[in-house]
Design goal:
- This protein is α/β, with parallel strands linked by helices.
- The protein has three domains: 185 residues, Nitrogenase molybdenum iron protein domain (Rossmann fold), CATH 3.40.50.1980; 144 residues, Rossmann fold (3-Layer(aba) Sandwich), CATH 3.40.50.1980; 33 residues, no CATH class.
- The protein is built from 16 helices and 15 strands.
- Strand 6, helix 6 and strand 7 form a beta-alpha-beta unit.
- Helix 4 crosses helix 6 and helix 5 runs parallel beside helix 6.
- The longest helix is centred in the first third of the chain and has 30 residues.
- It is globular and about 85 Å long.
- The protein starts with a strand and ends with a helix.
- 41% of the residues are buried.
């Protein structure tokens, strides 16, 4: 990691650039071809692409529910207990997000109602490459079930021999996923977006993935809703000199092991503290297994020394990180002003790992600066808001002058007529 002292605004903008290729022409073309292949050839294309990309020869694309139940029975008890505890915490927090209908009488005789209704069928994409993200099954399937989605479909890639991580299958069973398919990559996104002989078309697609999956989600979003744009994962840590350098180093390393394009950024107040964190990174990284991935990520990551707390808050909001850790003595006060982040971790004992797995918040979050405009996944993500209005004759009469005046001012006479014809009809 490099250390930068008091950068200018332009230097800060350069440091905050994400690890996303500007020219993705090759990926774009490849993904378009995959999508067109799946749309044209359905299941046959999925089998052919699974063999090509994953070296998986699939006779059946759908995983039997019995196999998911067996995965629960065979799973290591310690892992299963941890999974169930995490699921309970996630459910508790996401259940609390359900809202009651809103009903307002705006004027006498005019009642307006807003209700949340579930998205009928949702598709979940769960990566299975470097790390089988069974925790993401919990993060997506639990709020989908709480929302009341009629059908939850899950796609995840199979490895050689059609093998899927048993943790993913067990999590799917625990969360009540309806159907699981051994399909990965951009082809899985295409299948859920347009449907094949085996995989049903869904109304909205959720889940993280590599550049190809992300590009596929972007391309199919013209016809199928997606959760959010996604890119390499990222963390920003804000720390004062009283913070524990080892804690901070561990947070930066935990982000770096997500992938070679992940980014870790530390904002601090002194060169001395920056040096202590660098020293701890060198010590701790020797204990970790994914060294190649971590080294690649850290080569694109930064430690930035800023003059004061306000400069750190301004820089954090400018970066709009996916994860923001505030390791400061007045962490709660700082958190009030660092509002442009996907999820905020407050205090010395709130590592990103807690939110990734078991605190209860969702770990499917906006990256690449999208946290300035988008929320992370929540129960509301699996629902739509529908409005209803009921007007009595008295209510319509009271609004008639407003409606007809505005309609005629816009040159929409038929809109005015729809009101006046009712008022005149005795």
């Amino acid at each position: 990691m490099d250390i930068t002292i008091n950068p200018t605004f332009d230097q800060l903008k350069k440091l905050f650039e994400r690890n996303i290729p500007v020219d993705d022409t090759q990926v774009d073309e490849s993904v378009r071809n995959i999508i067109n292949d799946v749309r044209a050839h359905g299941d046959e294309a999925l089998r052919r692409l699974a063999l090509r990309f994953d070296r998986a020869e699939l006779s059946e694309l759908e995983v039997p529910t019995s196999r998911c139940r067996e995965a629960v029975e065979k799973l290591d008890k310690e892992v299963l207990d941890a999974m169930r505890q995490a699921a309970a915490n996630i459910e508790a927090f996401h259940r609390a997000q359900l809202v009651q209908p809103i009903e307002v009488e705006t004027v006498p005789g005019v009642t307006c109602v807003q209700r949340q209704v579930p998205i009928p069928r949702v598709g979940l994409y769960i990566p299975g490459g470097r790390a089988p993200l069974f925790s993401t099954v919990l993060m997506l399937a639990i709020p989908a079930r709480l929302a009341g989605c009629r059908e939850v479909v899950l796609c995840t890639p199979a490895g050689e021999g059609g093998h899927i991580a048993p943790e993913i299958l067990a999590a799917a069973s625990i969360c009540g996923v309806d159907r699981v398919f051994a399909v990965g990559g951009a082809q899985a996104i295409a299948a859920m977006a347009y449907g094949t002989e085996s995989i049903p078309r869904v109304n909205k697609i959720f889940g993280p993935g590599n550049r190809y999956v992300t590009k596929a989600k972007q391309l199919v979003s013209i016809s199928t809703a997606i959760d959010m744009p996604a890119g390499p994962s990222e963390v920003m840590v804000i720390a004062d000199d009283r913070a524990n350098p080892a804690f901070v180093a561990a947070d930066l390393l935990s982000q770096a092991e997500h992938g070679p394009d992940s980014q870790s950024v530390l904002l601090c107040l002194s060169q001395e503290f920056a040096a202590k964190v660098m020293e701890q990174i060198d010590i701790l990284r020797k204990q970790l297994h994914r060294s190649e991935c971590i080294d690649s990520s850290l080569s694109k990551s930064h430690i930035i020394v800023l003059p004061d707390e306000k400069a750190m808050i301004d820089a954090a909001n400018m970066y709009a990180p996916e994860h923001l850790i505030i390791a400061m003595g007045n962490a709660h006060d700082v958190a009030k002003y660092t509002t442009e982040a996907g999820s905020v971790f407050i205090g010395d004992y709130a590592p990103e790992s807690a939110g990734d797995y078991a605190s209860g918040t969702n770990h499917t979050l906006p990256t690449g600066g999208w946290a300035a405009a988008l929320s992370g996944v929540n129960t509301d993500s699996f629902m739509r808001r529908v409005t209803y209005q009921t007007l009595s004759r008295q209510g319509l009469e009271s609004l008639a002058p407003v409606i007809t005046t505005m309609a005629r001012a816009e040159g929409l006479d038929a809109h005015a007529l729809a009101v006046t014809i009712r008022i005149k009809n005795d």
